[in-house]
Amino acid sequence: EALAVTRISSAEKILMITLATAPELTQENRAPILRVIGRSDTLATMVADFVAANFGNKALGVQFAERQTAFDTTLRRGLEAKKIELKQSEAAPIQALQPPRWARDVQALILPLLNSVPPWAREITKENQGLNLVIPQIIIRDEPSRVLEGLQNATIISNPWPDFFTTAKDTIAREMAVGTTESVRFAIRNTL
């Protein structure tokens, strides 16, 4: 949906403020777009770097999303580039994500890109003492910290929440100065 709207906002020169993480959104030099969270492929690169630095020589398992995403593709390429082999992997439906049956056979498990921590995350790390859980998230919220509170073997890697972007108002003000339409100015003013 964001890609369709991008074409319109670009043609009309209307500032688009989006939470979309798809890399394609800003790859074609469409403007003006203010992306208030990072791209999913950049997040996947951060996860691959973290895994290489912390679990590069351990048995690694990955649950990929059932429907291939930019995150999955970039994560797979990043792990391959770092010569990290997957001991286990599977494509899983993220709407009803279940713990993998093979969790006890790996030392590190990367979950698919999710909006929230699965309710079973705490239990799986307690049942498998040697398992390190890596949970990529589009946006970090307070909720995951409660689910994982006190666990030393669970890590969330995330884009920051838009509140972390302290320069957003300046960026919006610049866009407004170059001639954003009045209706968009009103919408922007009311969202800040």
Describe, in plain words, how this protein is organized in 3D.
There is one protein chain. By secondary structure, this protein is an alpha/beta fold. Helices cover about 40% and strands about 20% of the residues. It has eight helices and seven strands, in the order H-E-H-E-H-E-H-E-E-H-E-H-E-H-H.
Give the secondary structure arrangement, pairings included.
Elements (H helix, E strand, L loop, with lengths): L1 H11 L3 E3 L5 H4 L5 E3 L4 H16 L4 E6 L4 H12 L4 E7 L15 E3 L10 H7 L4 E8 L3 H5 L6 E6 L8 H10 L4 H10 L1
Parallel strand pairs: 1-2, 3-4, 3-5, 5-6, 6-7
Helix pairs in contact: 3-4
End-to-end distance: 23 Å
Which strand order does the major sheet show? 4-3-5-6-7
Mean pLDDT: 77
**Oligomer class:** single chain
Structural class: alpha/beta
Q: What is the percent of helical residues?
A: 25-40%
Shape: elongated
Sheet of most strands: 5 strands, parallel
Over the alpha carbons, how many angstroms does the gyration radius reach? 19 Å
Which features does this protein show?
single chain, alpha/beta, five-stranded parallel β-sheet, two-stranded parallel ribbon, 8 helices, disordered C terminus
Question: Could you provide a short overview of the structure?
Answer:
39% of the residues lie in helices and 19% in strands.
